[in-house]
Amino acid sequence: MYIVCNINEFLSSMPNINNVKPEVAVIGAGIIGVTTALQLQKAGYQVTLIDKLGIGEGCSKGNAGHFATEQVFPLADSSLLPKIPSMLLDPLGPFRISLPYLLKALPWFLKFITNMRPSAYEKNKLALRRLNLQALPAWKRILSELRMEHLIELKGSLLTFEQQSSEQALKILALYQAEDISVQLLNRAQLEQLQPGLDTRVHCALYFNEVGHTINPYLLTQTLYQECQRLGVIFKKTEVTEINHLKNQPIVGFIDAKSQSFDKLVLCTGAFSKKLCLQLGYKIPIEAERGYHLMAQAASMPKIPIASFDKKFIMTPMAEGLRLAGTVEFSGLKQPANYKRALALLPLGQAIWPAITTKLTDDNLIMWMGCRPSLPDSKPIISQSGKHQSIYFNLGHQHLGLTLAATSAELITALISSNNPTIELSDFSINRFN
């Protein structure tokens, strides 16, 4: 009797008599890469984490610190269309498209507009909701194992309304409730009880009571990396110049060292993924969606993150002060930061939280800019390559990198380990763009 089988499956099922761990390269050491490296090392792989800047030195360092599980709505919303002219004209508006960059980004925006179709919008929304439902449970699993639960504060967040009417707030409330998001509409008296100190112009707010924040997203990333080190993850601070694929093995080329082969490879390179993906035969429509923050001091601090529906920004209480963050700017990876956009956040913050004492004339204002990895359908890529079975992708999380890092790491680890992921991943396949 003859038995026909796949030789790779046969070899993988054989006992590892030398106890040699399969080697995995994780390229990108932001919060996505670090959580991915941690989960893979725990699953029995020998992980090499690679980044040219260091651990958590990109968006993971300067994000708003908000675990925004309520944000299930794709950015590609048809309500944006009438606002596009003002986006082009207002250099400090909440959604800015740089005129010199517009022509280069036009193919991305055409795909973005296509995703505004009701059927596409609904599909993308449902996919995001499936991911977001798993986000905080995944974070709790990671941090409880480390006994570091204090790194996330689960106190909720507010979405305030100042100029918009209460009727508008009720409409927004209904949208969230239709998605089974736990939310309450609070009037002014209720807000005084929950969060005293809001400006009197805030007449009502939505209270999301099942979301969280961290007072130091950079520390969170560093703490997870320390656990990676303890478990044996290797870190290489260098730039990856190319990725090749030979005999089912990824080969990584470095700018300052000879190439190295691995058994598997995961790209977690965020907004900087386009070039490396192209080398692997994938032309992905990823754009750098630049965001800014400004650190402010205040006589008293809010207890929870506060976002403004009217002003389109968020403030989060952090260990070193009040972080004012937000804005969307499409201007590419190479243009210098426009810190006027960060400075514009200060009067917005003072209009919501009058206890802010920082002034625009202060010396040594702390400002930051980072590039979010934005895809036109607002969904990340959590996927095995259809061209090379030993290469995987975990990137493109847009505004939800911090929120989705833990569950994305669990999902990609399950995929690499040939286990069944907890959700269907076809919506997040890289093949949707190719």
TrEMBL record:
Residues of the signal peptide: none
Pfam families the UniProt entry points to: DAO
Cellular component, GO, one term: cytoplasm
Superkingdom in the source lineage: Bacteria
Keywords assigned: Oxidoreductase
Parts forming coiled coils: none
Gene3D superfamilies: D-Amino Acid Oxidase, subunit A, domain 2 (3.30.9.10), FAD/NAD(P)-binding domain (3.50.50.60)
Segments forming domain FAD dependent oxidoreductase: 24-415
Stated name of the protein: Putative D-amino acid dehydrogenase, small subunit
The species this protein was found in: Pseudoalteromonas tunicata D2
